[in-house]
Amino acid sequence: MDNQWKEYCAQYDKSDESQRQSLRAALSDSQRPVFDAAWAEYQASPPPPPLRDTFQYKPPDEQVAFLKTYRKSSMLKRRSMLKDYTKEERANFDEAYRAHQAPEKRKMAIVGVIAFLGFAVVMNKSDNTVHTPPSPQPEVGRQGAYTPNPNHARHQILKRDSINRDTVHRVRVRIYEPLKEADLSKIGKAIKRASPGFERYYIFFHYKGPGDGAAYATTHFDPDFKVDIFDKDGSMGL
In the chain, which residue ranges form alpha helices assigned H by DSSP? Predict the structure, then answer.
């Protein structure tokens, strides 16, 4: 059956009885036997399968809307949207979705490169910045070797140790000028507060020398607090 007779049979099939009579009357005597044979063949052939409601059969505007909905959906929703697709229909959709995603991926890649370059510039500036470390500040409880009067401090912790199963705490302190009993008392009590938990405290103050010779003064908690100044004129430890 050629396409001309197939189309005529399809039109005949959709018509009511009066329209069918008009269609038969329009045929010549020689055409009617040909039509009757074509009509019998048309009726015997199986009807074409209905179009499936899948992506490839949708109009272009509905395809775009379907892709946007799919992109914003959860994985569970996506599986539901494609659950009735055949293998061929799924492959067709995957190809269309990759093409739909391509501009967005390019945009994200450009943004990523720009962000990386900005971070690299910031890090480069940071690496080239000269950082001046802060000058050491004297503090109670800080141990260190002798340095000549850092930042005009009045004292500096030289050494500390604990003896007799941590019941006695000994501290050696550098002072940079002869101090009065009241000043030595304040420093000694501050050192004790900074290291609580001992029964006795022996604090030795050294003036000028390396800190391993005779002490200028002491503030001991044995256990009662007592201040002794042995070098009234500051001549020891030269």
Answer: 3-13, 17-25, 31-44, 60-72, 75-81, 87-128, 181-194
Q: Answer yes or no: are the C-beta atoms of 169 and 160 closer than 8 Å.
A: yes
> Are residues 93 and 160 located together in one domain of the fold?
no
| Structure-token pair, residue 53 | 């409601």
Domain that holds residue 19: 3-44
Please state, in angstroms and rounded to a whole number, the distance separating the CA atoms of residues 217 and 163. Answer: 21
Mean pLDDT of 126-140: 53
- The Cα 92–Cα 132 span in angstroms is 64
Do 157 and 217 sit in the same domain of this protein?
yes
pLDDT at site 62: 87
Token code pair at residue 35: 């039509």
DSSP track, 142-184: ------S-GGG-SEEEEEEEEETTTTEEEEEEEESS---HHHH
